Amino acid sequence: xxxxxxxxxFDVKEARIGIVISRWNSFITERLLEGxxxxxxxxxxxxxxxxxxYCPGSFEIPLVTAKxxxxxxxxxxxxxGVVIRGATPHFDYVAGTASRGISDVMLKYNIPIGFGLLTxxxxxxxxxxxxxxxxxxxxxxxxxxLEMISLNRAISS
Length: 157
What we know:
Rossmann fold, 5 helices
């Protein structure tokens, strides 16, 4: 069987990336940001083409992401935040609403979004996902947007 195979790569030149970062749990989100920026630079994205926009918490990430997507100047947006489960249902509301909002923005504006929103049961789990034994989820979100930018370009050409 002979099929046409279309795939993205991580080799993306001249991309403009917006990164939305929650200030809540900044000791973790800053590590996620470092991982994302490191990956973008390693794959050829110029540092001057990366904008970091800070918002108060993860609940606000979808609105800021929508504002960036609406501008039409970004090839992708990366969302970085941390929601840690506590003793109340607050976790469920914030994590669910933020996740759904991020997804809605991606589909409404047809723009790749890297999902770097950690939803964990403990601070220790969040720290593990910000660069220790579970890798850096900010870096993974950056790889995702690079591949999706490339894939979108391949489909459009």
